[in-house]
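Page 37, top half.
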Amino acid sequence: MKTKSFTKGLVGCALLAASLVTGCKEYDDTGIRKDIADLQGRVESLEAWCETAKGQISALQSLVTAVESRDYITGVEPVTEAGKETGYAISLGSGKTFTVKHGTQGDPGVTPQIGVAKDEANPSDENYYWTVKTGDDEPEFIVDPATDGKMPVTGEKGDTPELSVAEHNGRLYWKVGEDWLLSDGAKVPATGEQGDAIFAENGVDYTTDPNSVTFTLADGTTFQVPYASTLLTIVADEENVNTFSVTSTLFEESGNVVDIRVESENADGMTIATRVATTRWTVESEINGDVLTITADPANAVELGEKALLKVTVSDATGQVLASGRTVFTNARKDNAILASSPKILANALNNDPEITEIRLDDDLALDQTLVIEFGDAAQRSVRTAQTLEKTIDLNGKTLTGPKNGSTILFINQGTVTFKNGTIDIANAWNQHADIGVGVDKSQDNPKSDEVVSKATAKFHKVKLNACVLVRYGSSVEITDSEVENPLYCVTTNANASKADTEPVTVKITNTKLTGETPVMLNVPSSVEIDNCTITGGWQGVMMRGGTATIKNSRISLQEELAANEGSWLKGRKIKENWGSGNEIPVAGITMGDNTGTAYQYPTSVTLENTQVSGYEDYWAVFADATETCTVNFKYNEQCTFSPKLDQEQSFKQGLSAGKYITVNNKAVVTE
């Protein structure tokens, strides 16, 4: 095949009429004006035709790309315009689409026909190149002006020729790019009725052979592309990331070949691009009966959250595509981090995968009671001391919700779990179960045992937490820059033994707002640090029935709407009688100590710095009672304020101890 030659030429600068308009002599120019109008109309018509041809040249380029990359067709849908069928929309297995317009015959010899062909003179060259055919001439290769060689259709140097018309000496001629189209050395005129420059009439045949689609170009060239009309459904695994399953009887047929490919998106986050090198994705698969299981394992170059495309095709022994499927998924694993898109993935990462240290929520997740979210072994048989497990759950602006049916839904049995950047909404009405349990003791074997089985730490950073966190002996909770709300307790403990000879609970709360009936309720030996917090309760803001607390730069107050106004609710309750369990004790912004003589037998120390404490009007901001064992040591500096005003008679001498065993700023309230 020859290379079609073109000659450079300037577009005519003036119409034919311009050369005739000379001198001042009057003459009848009606004919000239009609010729000009006809020429302008012809130009506009051809320009519109060229624009259509441009789209079809692009469609042909997509077709050649599909052939070269061994792509296949998944759908052929008619396209209608103004109620008339005008072509077909072609869908490829790669996800790309293009539209082929129905060709029109037109007048012979006047329409340049753009096509593609391989170079028969160079059999080792598998590339396609653009061709042009005029009249009865043989197709010839189009010259690439950048190289003066053949113009490739695809690849790095692939381009598309541009058809246009231009006027020369009052007539219109064809151009390809910037060059005149020549035939036997003469410009090819753009006259007569234009036909199709790319695809022939009825150039798409998808009915003759159910396994392929045949495309016919205007110059007679044909292409056949496999047609996979059976679509496979790819289902993501609910428990394991980057894992999928496909069900089809085709997997059971001997001789069929399954091809699995994974493609990643561009680094700039745009649409799915070219195939990725095998060094990036490792694809493992297993066929069991009619089920294909696929696991896509990314290499370090693939980012967490990066979009990817999974494609599955089934072919027979001859290479004919029988079925195909594709799905876009989000890469959910990188190094020691995963994206959790389901509660089961979250549970599996916490419970069963020790390699995972960071879990990021990919969506809002709703937990249910059939699924226990548990970190660490909860076995009661032996005491564990060395705990090094750490995991971070990045809520990623999402919300973790729970069933709210009165049972613990999150167990942190050992090690450290950090929650950050989102919302946890799992609050239950209190029925001896918290929403989040931290640590394990032997109380399940012996309700009176305080022996530690395993220590754990729960951390919350920038979390909106609607839940109760129960911290068991020897364990800790840290809350920073958060909001915690619960109908009853926000942070609490559970006293199993009367004397608790084990390590204390540790509580650190900073820059946080806590709201509940008793937001901080601690009834075992505790080490507490509260700084720059706003605590609003109904019965108590802070309840310390044992341990040491330092509260700085904070505001503690009460609001009656937060109190459960039922049962023993009275603002002046439990003053001259033994305190009950839990928060069944006197009402105050801060309530300290114990007076039972049988339970909660440990001393309490509370220190305030630059803190405001408020109680109900006509009652008291702080209240304390004590025994010889349950002593109370209360300190505050000059920057602290109390409302009602602090009065030792009201706050420290009303209880059963009448002020004995209580010191305020290192001075005994009652001296013997």
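Page 37, bottom half:
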Amino acid sequence: MPIHVQYNQSQRLQRLSHSFKDYSGPARLLHNQFTDSTPFDVPGGHAIASGALTVTLLDHPEHSQTPASQTTSQTTYSTTQTSAEPQTFWLNYELSASLSGTTIQPSQQANNISGQASAHMQLTACLSARPGNIIADTLTTQLTTLPCIYSREDVKALKPGESLALDTQGTLTVQTSIKWSELLCRNFHLISRWLAQGELLDLSFNASLNADLEVSIEGGYQVIFFRPVDTPHILRLSYVKSTSNSTQGTVNTNITAKLRNREAFQVAYTAILEAIFQRSEEEIEALTAHLPPNALPDQLLPVATALLKRLGLDKLEELKPRIKEIQQSLETSICTAAQSGVELSFYYHYHRVQMHQALLHLTVCDDALTPTLHEATVAGTLMSQLDTHLKQVNVEQFFNQRITQQHHTWGVHFNVFSWQMMSREDTKFQVITEENVHGEIKLSGQGLRCYQDQTGEEKRQFYIDFEAAMPTFKAPALVSMQDFDLTLTLAHSTRQENLDEHAACQLADELAIWGLIPPGEVDTLAGQLYRKLKGQQDIQATLTLTIPRDVFRDLLPTLADANPTRLSEALAAAMPRHLQMPSCRANPLLRKAFYSPAFAHYLSADESKAATLIELATTRLKQLKQYDSAHKERDWRSKPGPTLGRMMQMHPDLKADLNNLITGMHKLNGHNTLNGDPEVLQTIYHLFDNMGSQHFYMRFFAYYLQLSLTELGYQHTALQSTGLIEFGAATARQAWLLSGVAPTRHSL
């Protein structure tokens, strides 16, 4: 049905009492804001033309550009001269309309969801006029029954060179809320694992506290029906659509936490004290016992020198009072925490974006422009229904892509005295769906899991990057994981102000885990690193390991077979280096030899318990005459450092996470169809992305991949493994680049 426009400014029309042949375009004839609303029908409701009306005189049709010269980045069309009759004039009517109102559905109200919607549309009609006609009379006649794109009859009645267009943009904003307790309980490990005894904190929080989220959906589409002058028996249809759906929310709150008992207090006190001084409690006690006025033994001089530098002191006699002050202040702080709670600040951020980009150019005969095809076009749903109309139309250009991005962030900050800890965890996933005109699809997905933390002066980041991409289009019902090219990349970055002997040992051990140096040469390289870098500042090490797509596909059956020997060897090798157990924990080879049998039993048992694993490891250490190490592992609750018991308490879901990893690899290697559902990629990825959530898991996964490749018969070069160690001031930055086992020095 045409739009009846009330235009009451007769004085302005009187000025246009001449014929068209007295004018030349382009020239704006009218521009007016509506004083009265003009309603008209749209699919599913009504719209109100309550904005501006603009009429422009043209000397050629408005939408005459051919699809071949149009691009997806343009939604406006140039006005080139065509073979239309020279004496024909064109009036281009632009009419704005709006839709607005609150949108709250009963089902939404039940879920605490409310929203506000607004939409703006621009209607365009380019109509022809004879040169002898009077402009004012033509305007009055055409405005009385202005053709509208929402009317199929008006579209089919277009004359050669005439066109009808619709350009709409809209926004829907929705507010919703979820329970803070649901967010926190799913991520409790991020808080509890920071202290040495794992789940050391009893948490209490307001269960009714809500996290508010805001959802905004922005989108629009443009539709143009144009009847070509040279082929008047057909209609040319141009359809462009762009939609963005964004969900984001950030939550910050304070949580009360209490230490459970005095034993836990002592463990926390020892752990924090050693982190502050970066020395063991035994070394601190020995040092304070010999400090002035007593003589200081030679073996304690390096400890005293390091502490003077760390605490910013100049004289040896200042050291003992400062240590005592810190110890007393720390004890007071933790005692207060045990009674009234220590404050943790935890945050959660969620961001999801969905984007839909579509472009379609086609031609259709008048008889083939059915009501169903017309309504799907003006309602913005043509792309999803195109397969049902292919026999009616001739498609000239087609592009259809959907992108979904998700980003989660969790974090925690912990402050006691001047000592700080920070962690942040991010997970991102993006799915892209491309569709061709035959309804076939091409899927691709990319996931990134990032974990970063800071303990004292050391900053660390861990990444796992996964990509799955179909190289060709395929029918949705036939798509399986075998149709994807797969790539996997692991990365680890650590940064610290300077490098001491302990840090040099840890860095050398990381290089061995990532296959950049022979695993038996950790101590040798650690000494070299310390001698080369001990006077340098701002030291950053970045390690990466990439499995190319051809290798990854061959490797999947091996990764999915859950071989307990390979898993247990990787778990043992990935254990942290322990400076007080040099005979059995100094490098990956020693850790495999001493601990892998215990891990193998742990993995094969029906009911795996950490206590059993510790007992088995202790027994084996005794059998191999490592009595001191066995004693430390047995009495791990009272011993400092990364003992096996402490490591297992920090990873209570180890076996479940390993099962998920194997399941994820099995699904990547599967032949089951996805039924065109891109969310399946994300589901599979989240089965194994925990391998990028913490340091031990990252070390395990890197070593496990290398063992699996060796078993498969691949050479080390099949893995793209690199390491970069940067150091020095910004003005004279240097680096070592490692690939395989051959470090090369160069200047950045």
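Margin note: The chain has a mean pLDDT of 75.
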